[in-house]
Amino acid sequence: MLNKRFAFVSAGVISICMNASAQQELDLDPVTVTSSISPLNTSKTGRNIVTIKGEQFNNLPVNSIDELLRYLPGLEIQARGPMGVQSDFVIRGGTFQQVLVVLDGMRLNDPLTGHFNSYIPISPAEIDRIEVLKGASSAIYGSEAVGGVIHIITKTFAARKEKQKQASAQFAVGEYGLINGNIGGFYNNGKTAVGGGFMTNNADGQQQRGTRGFFNLNTASASVSHRISDNWDVALRSGYDDRKFGAQNFYTRSIADTANEQVTSFWNTLRVAYQKNNNKLSLNGGYKKAEDRFAFNSMYPANANNSSIWQGLLQYEHRFAPASVLTTGAQYVNRQLVSNNRGNHQEALVAGFATFNHTFNDEFTVSPAIRLDWNENRGAELVPQLNLSYNLNIFQFRGSIGKTIRDADFTERYNNYNQKNTPNMQSIGNPDLEAERSLAYEAGVDIYANKLFKVSASYFKRDQENLIDYVYTPYAQIKYKDNLVPGNSYALAKNIYEVNTRGIETDVQFTKALANKQSIWSSVGLVWLKSKSSEANPSFYILSHARFQTNFTLQYATPRFRISTNGIYKNRAEQPATAFITKMNSDYFVINGKAEVLFLNQKLGIFTQVDNIFDENYSDLFGAQMPGRWLLVGAKFTL
Questions:
Q1: Is the pLDDT of residue 191 over 90?
Q2: CA-to-CA distance for 633 and 482, rounded, in angstroms?
Q3: Does residue 615 contact residue 631 with C-beta atoms inside 8 Å?
Q4: Alpha helix locations (H) across 343-400?
Q5: With the C-alpha atoms ordered 406, 409, 415, 417, is the resulting torsion angle positive or negative?
Q6: Cα–Cα distances in angstroms (integers) from residue 606 to residues 124, 181, 507, 609, in the given order
């Protein structure tokens, strides 16, 4: 039955894509900055990049930024809860630690754990666009940019000289005590731009084993940029994010796990930029502070983890000619942790990098990059990369080869090291972990059938050494065990000697304008991949990624109403049931829908939304049960 639903919906979406034609509504070859820092059309980057405008957030059946990303082609989201509770980002079969999240050029990844990388301290109203670069990017961004990069670019930091003003608000209520809302605005008079917003998602939650999957999630952000002169501008941003939620079996498979958790983070960044003629210079500074309180159950004291990250980024760009640009940079990062569970730790990173883009005859683009990256734990590392792109009529051929690195975070090294008598089946850190290293290759083609219809196909391969993952290990085989209980087994963080991942991905994007101001917009992604590990015992996160995934978004709009739907189908390794956790099926299909009636020249909308229409029983990660069908209704206002 599941496969029939999936086949029916997929056939319908792909059929619409194949019949796309007419005048342009969306730019399928946008100017992006993620692959090379300097602005460059996607077709000339040599990379597979997917973008989505921030304005789509209120039009689609999504409730949080991670849900918006979940349905972008080629991006796998492994959610532990709905509506922004917690999600792991996975690209091209990597682990959740192998995706770098960037906000206006500054890295957001939390030094405590990659599980918090989806806690993006930005309200949806402030987002100009999101760029997702698939594949290796360590030559520019350093550690974590292994599977890809998610770059959120805000309206204020991307502000141009054009005058603009926007305001929007959305409110919804639903089953299980759900109350959601977001409000925000943006104003630009050509010299000064101001943006801000607030988002909140709250519910009592659906029933779980002896508890409920409740959540109270709040995000607020504000920003300002000012053009001091024709050459100088300054921009400032602050963000606050607080998430409290039920976390049963988010991190363990223990029957004693009735956890709840609260994560509060603060984000501040400042940018000063200078531009004259063919030269650009920018200095960026950022500070992030996060407080995590995790209570496994009422019998154990709560873990108190306070992490922070200071960072500075200096970038210089020189354009020798319209088709030739050099970008160089220097970066400093300092990570700190104070924890009653993991201890107190600090580490510093210093790096310098350069990338050069040159296009020959508006057809062939070459983009080499190199980074010298020093970390006080592993020393210095040279990280090179080469991207190529060639245009032939409607075909854009591309290829890339690059080295990647990733350093272990504080949880992978020290989790539970200050915890006495750590319960059975919990995760244990390993201070002896070495850095991950890999060599990534990809080759692909983009077909621009017309200005409205784009098909992308890519083959990728990543050969990894010392990949870090958790493997269930008996007490007797663990080196550091003063805090462990004899006879128990634990999920030990360890280096896996060799992991090889290869796959194929296909993206289809189109937009179509119809008569009487009607329009259709859609995207479809398909990914097939296989990972082979040298580890005899299955490791947790490698086992969890999809072997095949397709996700899609479809939207039909008229002046009076809008209908949108998105969905995802996954096939992955089945995991058998335990005494208290239902088995994780090998596949699932989830589809969501939203119907909206518009009034007052499309300024007012009344909508109904259904998440998980078919009431699919599923989980993305073993033990973390996702909700069934969820109905909500609401209204939105746009100025």
A1: yes
A2: 53
A3: no
A4: none
A5: positive
A6: 19, 14, 32, 10
